[in-house]
C-alpha cells in the first residue's frame, strides 16, 4: 500500500515533558484513521507536527515520499493538506457558501461552485448555503468547517475533534460525509476525537497514543480487545 502521509520517529519535548517520543504514523489514500488517547497523550502535538505548526525535535514527516518536515503550514496546505482546529475558525460574517468559495479561491484553480454545492449537499448543508456562518449552532458550524476544509479537494485531511458539540444526528451526518470524502474522493483522513464510539464506528484503523507513545494500532475490533488500551484509556470510557 502506498502511503500519502508518513511520520517517522517523531519526538517533541516541552521543557521536561516528552510530548511525543518516537511516534510513527502512516496514512493511505482513502483511509479514515482515528487518533485517540487520554488527555495529554500527545494527540494535538502530533497534529501540530504533521500540519507544520510545530517542528519536531526528532523524526520527519513525508508527503508522497518527500521530506516536508521543514515546510511551512501554508506550503503543506498548498500541496493538498488541510486541517481543522478544536476552536472554530469560520468566517462568521460570510455565508456558508462563501466560506467554501473563499477556501477554493486562494489556490490557483479559482472557485468551483459545482464542487462547493456538491459538498454542501454531502454535508447536509444545502439549505444553509445563504446563512451567515456566525449565526449557526455549533454542530452545523463544525460541518461547515469540514466542508470548507474539503472544498478544494485535499488529499490529506486532519480533523481535530470534528464531532465535539454535535448531536447524535449531526454525528451520523458527519460520519457519512467523512466516508464520502475518503471513499469517493480518495482523501486520506486522520481525526482526533474524544468520542470513542464515534471513532470506532467511522474509522477503519485506530491509533492509541499514551504518554507520547503509540500504545496500540489496529482495527477498531482489535483496539477494543487490547488489554493495555483498556487499562490506559478505555476503562474510563464507554466502549462502542
Ligand atoms: N506549548 C506547550 N508547552 C508546554 N507543554 C505542552 C505544550 N503543548 C502541550 N504540552 C504538553 O505536552 C503533552 C501532550 O499534550 P497534547 O496537547 O498534545 O495532548 P492531547 O493528547 O492533545 O491532549 P487533549 O486530549 O487534552 O487535547 C501534555 O503533557 C501537555 O501538557
Topology:
Layout: E1 3-14, E2 17-28, E3 32-36, H1 43-51, E4 58-63, E5 66-67, H2 73-78, E6 81-83, H3 96-105, H4 113-122, H5 138-149, E7 156-160, H6 168-185, E8 188-192, H7 196-202, E9 205-210, E10 213-218, H8 220-225, H9 227-232
Parallel strand pairs: 3-8, 3-9, 6-7, 7-8
Antiparallel strand pairs: 1-2, 1-4, 4-5, 9-10
The chain binds adenosine-5'-triphosphate.
What do you see in this structure?
The chain has a single domain, classed as P-loop containing nucleotide triphosphate hydrolases (Rossmann fold, 3-Layer(aba) Sandwich), CATH 3.40.50. The chain contains nine helices and ten strands. It has helices spanning 43-51, 73-78, 96-105, 113-122, 138-149, 168-185, 196-202, 220-225, 227-232, and strands at residues 3-14, 17-28, 32-36, 58-63, 66-67, 81-83, 156-160, 188-192, 205-210, 213-218. The strands form two sheets. Strands 6-7-8-3-9-10 form a six-stranded mixed sheet, sandwiched between helices. The chain has a four-stranded antiparallel sheet with strand order 2-1-4-5, with helices on one face. A hairpin with a 2-residue loop joins β9 and β10. α3 (96-105) runs parallel beside α5 (138-149) and α5 (138-149) packs parallel to α6. The site of adenosine-5'-triphosphate has 11 residues, from β2 and α1.
Q: Unreliable stretches, pLDDT < 50, 5 or more residues?
A: none
The third-level CATH topology is Rossmann fold
- Determine the mean pLDDT: 90
Beginning-to-end CA distance, first to last residue? 28 Å
What is the CATH homologous superfamily assignment?
Answer: P-loop containing nucleotide triphosphate hydrolases
- CATH hierarchy, class: Alpha Beta
**Secondary structure tally, helices:** 9
Amino acid at each position: 500500500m502506498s502511503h500519502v502521509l508518513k511520520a517517522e520517529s517523531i519526538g517533541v519535548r516541552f521543557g521536561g515533558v516528552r510530548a511525543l517520543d518516537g511516534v510513527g504514523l502512516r496514512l493511505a489514500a482513502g483511509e479514515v484513521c482515528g487518533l485517540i488517547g487520554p488527555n495529554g497523550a500527545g494527540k494535538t502535538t502530533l497534529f501540530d507536527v504533521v500540519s507544520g505548526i510545530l517542528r519536531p525535535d526528532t523524526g520527519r514527516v513525508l508527503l508522497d515520499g518527500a521530506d516536508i518536515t521543514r515546510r511551512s503550514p501554508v506550503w503543506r496546505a498548498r500541496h493538498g493538506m488541510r486541517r481543522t482546529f478544536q476552536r472554530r475558525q469560520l468566517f462568521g460574517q460570510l455565508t456558508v457558501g462563501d466560506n467554501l468559495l473563499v477556501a477554493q479561491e486562494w489556490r490557483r484553480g479559482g472557485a468551483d461552485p459545482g464542487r462547493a454545492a456538491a459538498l454542501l449537499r454531502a454535508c447536509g448543508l444545502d439549505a444553509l448555503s445563504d446563512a451567515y456562518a456566525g449565526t449557526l449552532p455549533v454542530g452545523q458550524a463544525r460541518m461547515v468547517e469540514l466542508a470548507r476544509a474539503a472544498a478544494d479537494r485535499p488529499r490529506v485531511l486532519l480533523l481535530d475533534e470534528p464531532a465535539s458539540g454535535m448531536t447524535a444526528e449531526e454525528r451520523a451526518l458527519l460520519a457519512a460525509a467523512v466516508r464520502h470524502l475518503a471513499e469517493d474522493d480518495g482523501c486520506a483522513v486522520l481525526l482526533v476525537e474524544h468520542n470513542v464510539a464515534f471513532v470506532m464506528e467511522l474509522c477503519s484503523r485506530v491509533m492509541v497514543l499514551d504518554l507520547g507513545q503509540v500504545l496500540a494500532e489496529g482495527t477498531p475490533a482489535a483496539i477494543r480487545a487490547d488489554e493495555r488500551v483498556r487499562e490506559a484509556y478505555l476503562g474510563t470510557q464507554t466502549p462502542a
